[in-house]
Structure formats: structure tokens, C-alpha cells
Amino acid sequence: MNATPPEHPRDRALTAPTVSCVFVCHDGAGHVLLARRSAGARDEPGTWDTGAGALEHGESFEEAVAREVREEYGVDPLSVEVIGVRNVLRGTPVSHWVAVVFAVLVDPARVVLGEPHKFDALDWFTPDRPPHPHHSQLPQTLALFPSPRPTPDPA
Questions:
Q1: Which spans in the chain are helix H?
Q2: How many Cα atoms within 13 Å fall on the side-chain side of residue 40?
Q3: Which residue in 26, 8, 27, 28 sits closest to 16, CA to CA?
Q4: Using 50, 70 and 90 to split pLDDT, how confident is the model at 8?
Q5: Residues 23-64: tens digit of each pLDDT
Q6: β-bridge mates for residue 32, sequence order
Q7: What percent of the chain lies above the pLDDT cut of 70?
Q8: Half-sphere exposure of 53 (CA within 13 A, CB side)
Q9: How many Cβ atoms from other residues are within 10 Å of residue 93's Cβ?
Q10: How far apart are alpha carbons 75 and 107 in whole angstroms?
């Protein structure tokens, strides 16, 4: 019997691995941008986390990251760099996704809360001192983020 795949990529993670683009936005001066998940968040409300979104069919990684950064933080990335890949298996309910993790340089003066139905706060932190409570996946994501991040050479 063939089951109809779930409509949303986030729901497919319950039946088959999905690809997620996880991004650590930074200011180029040693700070990372984290968002606190609101009561409307899909999971772990009240916790601080980096940004993320599902890779959509036909989209490049960079396109997905740019789209998600604009949606979540209202700003265009200045640079996007792959910093790692994680195979994430979570417990209840069981979910599975492959997280391609990116460091994304943004202009901190232009960042805004773009999805208030999912997040209720944004703030800047040093990667070695994230706020609590934090999302269950945050430590593993920040471990991939080498600090301090050099600002890319404009040449």
C-alpha cells in the first residue's frame, strides 16, 4: 500500500528523512543571532535557536537559506558558507532530517523579527554563551560554528 506523502516538508520528517537548511546568522564580530521560539512554534516553545527551513524541490541550498533568512529575519544574507552537515534523529515523535548547516553574515542593523507567529524575541549572543533554555539541537549546531568568524574580503 502506498501512502500519500505529507503536504509539508516538516511533516515528511516523520515518515522519511527531509533536508533542512540550518543557518547561524552572525555579525562578523563574534556574535550570533538567536530567536526564541514562541507558543506557536512547531516544537520546543520558549527555547532559543538558530534559524532553519526545509529545502524545497528545485531549490539550491543558497536559495533556500536566502529565502529563510529573509522570512525569519527580514534581511538579505551578505555571505553564505557551508560549515557542516548533521544527521538528526529525534525521539517523540520520531523524526529524521539531514541538516546542512551554514554560517550567514548579516547586517545586524537591518535584522527584524519576520515571523512573530513562530518567534517572540531576537538577540545577539556569543556562541560560547547561548541563552537558556535553548533548543535541544542548538549545542550541536553552534559546535560547527568556528568563532570568531572573519568578515569576507570584498575583493
A1: 9-12, 61-73, 138-143
A2: 7
A3: 8
A4: low
A5: 999 999 999 999 999 998 888 999 999 999 999 999 999 999
A6: 26, 125
A7: 84
A8: 20
A9: 8
A10: 8
Instruction: Report which of 95, 76, 79, 75 is spatially closest to residue 137, judged by C-alpha positions.
Output: 95
CA distance 133 to 103: 22
Give 109's DSSP letter.
G
Q: Cell 522570512 appears where? A: 71
Output the pTM of the full model.
0.85
CB atoms within 10 A of CB 126: 12
| Residue 14 phi, psi dihedral angles, 5° rounding | -80, -20
Torsion of CA 38, 39, 42, 46, to 10 degrees: 60
Q: Residue 51 corresponds to which amino acid?
A: G
pLDDT tens, position by position, 118-150 = 999 999 999 999 999 999 999 999 999 986 655
Q: Is the peptide bond before 108 cis (omega within 30 degrees of 0)?
A: no
CA distances, 83 to each of 23, 31, 80, 140, 149 (Å): 9, 16, 10, 12, 11
